[in-house]
Amino acid sequence: MKAAELRRSILQAAVEGKLVPQDPREEHASKLLERIRGEKERLVQEGKIKKTKQLPPVTEDEIPYELPEGWCWCRLDHLSQRIHYGFTTSASTYGNIRLLRITDIQNDKVKWECVPYCTVTMKIAEEYGLHKRDILIARTGGTVGKTYIVVEEGVASIFASYLIRVILSQVVNEQYIKYYLQSPFYWRQIGIQAIGTGQPNVNGTSLKHLLVSLPPLAEQQRIVDKLDVLMLQCDELERAEKDLDALDERFVERLPKSILQAAVEGQLVLQDPREEPASKLLERIRGEKERLVQEGKIKKLKPLPPITEDEIPYELPEGWRWCRVGSIHDLFRGITFPGTVKSASPFQSGIRCATTGSVQKEYNPYADVFVPEQYVKREYQWLSDYDILVSAANSKELVGKSCFWLGNTKMTFGGFLTVIRPQVSNINIKYSYYVFQFFYRSGIFSSHAKQTTNIANLSNQAISNILFPLPPLAEQQRIVDKVDILMGLCDTLKTVDTDPVENHMDAKRLPFIPHEEEGMRLAARGDVMNLSKEAIQAMNDLFAEDEE
Description:
By secondary structure, the chain is of the alpha+beta class. The protein has 15 helices and 25 strands.
């Protein structure tokens, strides 16, 4: 049970008489009501309050549940000396008295030094002046029904017209009434009593008619004492839930990077010693490149520097090899177009052009622009299927972000982008893509970028020199298959929310999300006891040591 749901259950138990034991020796609540009526009559005779029309007693048809012995049903008006609206005036930075508004009440507290002023007559100040024990109820807008009890002494203030004040009898426990005004039973009544079709709102008459379950005075105090303790515990539970939810969010945010790190370190799938090692793969790649150079299909490039021991960040599994990105990939920087030739709309002889905005988790065509085709002079400046687009000039946080381009549209790419392609067919391009995703998420790309005043630039030379962990070709595919599955699970985790939603206006709790999705969040929290066999098997496949 979540803290908010537990809080509601406790408050409902309190107003039903199920929270503390009853004492038959205590004065019956009906006697307390008689004393309250006597107090009101005396105050009327003394001219301290106005005589109002007495509301009818609660009928059998209105009673929602049975109360314990010693309790009775009444209306909020029966417990009050007066229920009335606040004063209509404008707030100001100057004046002779504070003007408390709905917006000044946050989390059941008021920062009086931030409450504005207004200027009123002595008569208005006396009629609307706030006193300790006054209960204020928001009567309109998104906070309708929310309550605040005045606990401060000595703050000269009145209350604004969007609030309703309840001045309670001196012989009723104001804290019990405050807790009652937080109970699900109260909120259900507010839902029934709300009027108006635009903004939800309540009026003073409807509040006067609200049903209140009244215990004996001594029991009211016992309930308050118990609730004070339990509400503090609910507060602690709520804070713990928020911390756990934040941990969940960090877990979900960091999980993709952890998966990619396991992939590039050779810890995600089993190695197979029967497979051709990456050293042989590199030899074949070099041989194929030499052949293509001799055939004039590619240009001979300046050799990259050899890898030194000091550069190697971690040990690779048997069968893997370190190489440089540029030794197995071709990198092409896009075309820098004059701003005057770019258009957001198609035009004759214009072609689509990818921009940095096009590089999202998936390719975003809505960020493309249109440019004259005549600017594209070389074949490599056209995009091809499975090109990896890298944002090479961007903020420090976004430089190196990448995505696949898939499509049959004839298009090019702008000068802030670099396209990466495998030089030969012996590289799994999706494995390369996941390695580049790790470079981006782990900050490797940004650490190789040169920072200018407003932008980080990741040159092709810098990318080419980055170390690339190369597994055997067959293992590349196994890694890709595993990462595909796990990234899908990460996407599912981001959409899971196990918090129930409650609408105060009808107090009907909406159901939890489907069980199978809830399992995803349980797994994220480390609670796998109640997961399905399939989910447990998937977790075992990911984290356990496999054996042949």
